[in-house]
Amino acid sequence: AHLDVIESAEPQINAFLKVSADVAREQADAIDAKRAAGEELAPLAGVPIAIKDMIVTKGIETTAASKILEGWIPPYDATVITKLKQAGMPILGKTNLDEFAQGSSTEHSAYGNTNNPWDTERVPGGSGGGSAAAVGAFEAPLALGTDTGGSIRQPGAFTGTVGVKPTYGGVSRFGAIAMASSLDQIGPVTRTVLDSALLQETIGGHDPKDSTSIPSPAPAMVSAALEGQKRDLSGMKVGLIKELSGDGFDEGVSQRFTEAVEELKAMGAEVVEVSLPHLKYALGAYYVIMPSEVSSNLARYDGMRYGLRVMPPEGVPATAANMMAYTREAGFGDEVKRRIILGTYALSAGYYDAWYGSAQKVRTLIIADFNKAFEQVDVLVSPTAPSTAFKFGEKSADPLSMYLGDIATIPANLAGVPAISIPAGLSEDGMPVGFQFIAPQQHDEVLYKPAAALE
Ligand code: GLN
């Protein structure tokens, strides 16, 4: 049924880079056979899923929406894919994104735009616009994304879907194409909070193949979501982040946010304002640390090991260095090149302490801010993004205005804490608004109760 929806919706949406119909049908048939044989199945067995093309899938082309990986067929599965297969979940295909997950609108894909299902003249958010649009357009009931600075949550907000960035280390990154390794995290994209809980329990937990994976089982998120559905939040203390409201946030976003906060109060939550004073430096720190890690991680695309290889033209010596230069020039898009250059600069001798070193110190201060806030409250809240989905071209020519839109999502990545975005109604422009909960590290279950209560 979902393959049929994909066929009819894709001409308008373009959420998928590749549809793996044969693989999905084969997997679905295998589950039917197991069910018929009376075998015990996992909770999500038979439920199909779309995968952001930042996650490697054995035998299915994986490009990270970059020309440099065109034609690359991974010889192995990411751990999350292995877990989905073990749970009996058919894989519908690979979804579009900003090249190497760098962007907030999916306009930086080398393979064209994905349209927002609510208004096809608007972006679906990014970088995981494909996964969010696929779920929002009912092409897939579930999807996976990756979130380095908001790429699961902001597209969730823009498409009226649910997106979760788990605790750093809570879901294995083995087989997630590295963007900025100290920030990257795989997580669920769904239509309901309970679906996210089910999916996160399926993909979460310790993985010896990822050295940053937390050696303890995934928290009990499904029971927390079910508890939340009772809509009783008495005893819960909610902190409204002072630095993530008011100035810079669109009127329509602020209105829906305030109404949702009132709803939390009506369900018995105590709401107080808390200040995280160093959040004003979060964007600056992120846009130094992230490109630094990008410049290092993307050094592996050298024309030797994966995908594209461009040989120097006649008259230019056919050396390895020249081949790499021509391959990277042709294979990377402008935004990726911008970040590689920025990151290389920030890491270079003489500038390292001033840029990268300072940014890491700011990161430590932000972590301390969160720790202090969580001494006062159980969970923090903010809008997911300062605006609703914008029109194509509105921000793509001005990188800084694009970066500024990440203000509310970046702090959770810098601090490694879990966060969820859920739909909170429509703004006056008719576009969805996202509401964000942030919880303490390794307490992802804390997100799920109030999120399920509010949805
Ligand atoms: N928009 C952010 C960026 O451009 C987030 C990217 C992400 O989470 N992958 O870096």
Can you give a write-up of this model?
It catalyses: L-glutamyl-tRNA(Gln) + L-glutamine + ATP + H2O = L-glutaminyl-tRNA(Gln) + L-glutamate + ADP + phosphate + H(+). Heterotrimer of A, B and C subunits. Its EC number is 6.3.5.7. InterPro entries: Amidase (IPR000120), Amidase_CS (IPR020556), Amidase_dom (IPR023631), AS_sf (IPR036928), GatA (IPR004412). It comes from Alloscardovia macacae. There is one protein chain. With about 450 residues, this protein is α/β, with parallel strands linked by helices. The protein has a single domain, classed as Amidase signature (AS) domain (Amidase signature (AS) enzymes, Alpha-Beta Complex). The protein has 15 helices and 11 strands. The protein has an 11-stranded mixed beta sheet, sandwiched between helices. The radius of gyration is 21 Å and the shape is globular. The two termini are about 25 Å apart. The relative contact order is 0.15. The structure holds glutamine (GLN).
